[in-house]
Fold this sequence. Notes:
The chain is 46% helix and 20% strand. It has helices spanning 16-30, 51-77, 91-102, 116-132, 165-180, 213-231, 245-256, 270-286, 296-299; strands spanning 5-9, 33-40, 82-88, 106-110, 137-140, 157-160, 185-192, 196-197, 206-207, 236-242, 260-264, 291-294.
Amino acid sequence: MKVRQILVATDLSDAAEAAYRHAEAFARAFGARVTLLYVDTVVPMGFHTSDALIEHINKVQSQISERLNEAQQGLAERGVDCDAEVVVGDAAESIMDFIGRRGVDLLIIARRSRTMLERLLVGSTTRKLVRHLKIPALVVDAQDAAGGGEPIVYGSLLTTTDFSQDSHLGLQRAVELSAVFEAPLTVLHVMAMPVLVPALPGEAGVPVRGDFWETLRRFYEGELSSTVLKMDERARYKVIVSAEVAPTIVSAAEEAGASLIVVPSHGKGGFKANIFGSTTERLLELSTRPVLILPRDWLRR
């Protein structure tokens, strides 16, 4: 996995400090350059209709420049190669356009808070980015801003797999990250209930009997063992039967002490996107740990 250019999409809030800390960790590990990007969504609304409004907007923009420069200088003082830019437009579209023009390898964004209102406000931009980005995106929690100047340390990683081609490629990247950060890796497969086995063509699958779940779990555990140990003999692996995937991932990450969750995506269109999107969005809502999303287009390069 190569990371040469990191983009931090910032709203200059206190929560953005969490994104800066994670950007520093990745920049140090990969020797990457960091760009801080603030998207001004107010100017396009056409509020320049009076001298008073113009004066107010100019004052706000001056404060934006000041805070952006402070964030840039803070990273530079800690040895991170960093620059900062302001663009005007829709948040998600401007971020994706900037990524395309600048050849960004990793996007980092922070959740502002865990209130329902903030989830809705941030969710639309995050959802659009997650579903349409063609590079990895690291979504971090505001609580990581509390560490102040202390560097982020990824002491343990957890990644998920469903035995698909995309998750296999994602596992390879997770193993690479584990080596870069010198952190142990746990690989998780969640066997979602109810488990269905194939039926006759045109008929719905037949639910597996409860007493067969453990047999099936052991089978998948054997498959996971042979796959994982070929890539990293030190990695741990686990298969869990559960009715809810996202909460199970969060619980498994807590149990493993994982400081980073790595999730490969399955695409961005149609039915699969809805399945992936709902699980990923739920995971982002529930997890206080950073979640690194690896999109299909990037995995298949």
